[in-house]
Amino acid sequence: MFFKQALDKQLDSWIADVREHANLPVKLRLWNGKEYPLGHFEKPDVTLTVREATALPLLLVPSLDNLGEAYVQEKIDLEGRLADIINVAFGFSAAAARSAGGALARVAQHFTHTKQEDQASIQYHYDVSNDFYRLWLDPNMVYSCAYFEHGNEDLATAQLKKIDHILTKIRLQPGHTLLDIGCGWGALVLRAAQKFGARCVGITLSQNQFDLATERVRAAGLTDRIEIRLQDYRDTAGQFDRITSVGMFEHVGKANLPAYFGRIRDLLTDDGVAMNHGITSTDPQSGEVPMDGSGFMDRYVFPQGELPHIGMVLQTLQQGGLEGFDVELLRRHYAQTLFHWANNFEANGETIRKMVGEKKYRIWRIYLAGTAHAFTTDQMSIYQVVCHKARRPADTLPWSRRYIYDATIGNTV
């Protein structure tokens, strides 16, 4: 009885505090049927149902990690438009951070990133099933930030534009050899061979991606120009005129970045060009941002994922023997990409739920929509960095970025 009274008092105090200082368009519904408004709104946008008392410790400190945990474990339910639900979640988290004096930042984790651990992490995330990804990606199954040149492109067009943007940036020419580190389901190497006339090697640690990419290469009649390998970048040998890494280095680990970029340098020809396209932290110290949901992401979405700040990217790139000469922020583009993915996911929600089960459905639903909000609000960022071997003569650099936008196949800079 004493414990219940204490909990009721704490809950009443929390409700009053949220209502007064956060003023969220939320109706709170408890397991016993009691309802409370959490803001001064005539008609709330979201109903938050607490299904059991064990959810209260998570709810009373409503960080993104705690809210995500309660939702995935089915301790709470959320009703309303997905965009409103995500806005409310960030509102809760911001209020919790203010109450804690900004002390809700998670202590940075450090992972060893052995080859076996990295393969297990990759397969956990990417080997859900190819049919699962087909339901919300574009037809080419490109699982990385698209490029919306004008802002009104559909997802499929924007993904092809992203690939062409990358291949034009690295000045890919007919006959060049290209290594794609983390090749996904093969869209970039297929485009590089078909449109740009390159000879390509794509590597991945995902068995599902390897199988489908290999089948796509065979179906396209390009087995003489494209090789797909189930291989770690640390085990790759050879020399390549061009190297791309798109949405992969987030799995490398911050401590391993100099060695990662050093490996790219070793695989690159002396006059070669490489590009790293990856998600970054917005914390200048390359730590977690209080409202980036890092704990939830590490536990349920990207095991052992680590995000460096763009400053660390450029520093470790130089330590690896490379010089970055073109840096482009694509944060707005990734927010738009994720909105497309989240909308596709919602449109196919019932099919996805039956395919992967309630828990995984909830994980991916909240991950896609929450990450879209994080990129929109500068909680996370993403950059493309074009580079070549350090100490090259200055006259090997292009005079301007004009070649990226005016180039046609066969042009030289």
Automatic annotation (TrEMBL):
Instruction: State the UniProt keywords alphabetically.
Output: Lipid metabolism, Methyltransferase, S-adenosyl-L-methionine, Transferase
The answer, when asked if Methyltransferase is one of the entry's keywords, is: yes
Q: Which domain of life is it from?
A: Bacteria
What biological processes does GO assign it?
Answer: lipid biosynthetic process; methylation
Q: Which residues form a coiled coil?
A: none
Stored InterPro entries: CFA/CMAS (IPR050723), CMAS (IPR003333), DUF7884 (IPR057206), SAM-dependent_MTases_sf (IPR029063)
Q: Where is the DUF7884 domain?
A: 19-91
UniProt cross-references to SUPFAM superfamilies, sorted A to Z: S-adenosyl-L-methionine-dependent methyltransferases
GO MF annotations for this entry?
methyltransferase activity
- What's the family? Belongs to the CFA/CMAS family.
Tell me what this protein is called.
Class I SAM-dependent methyltransferase
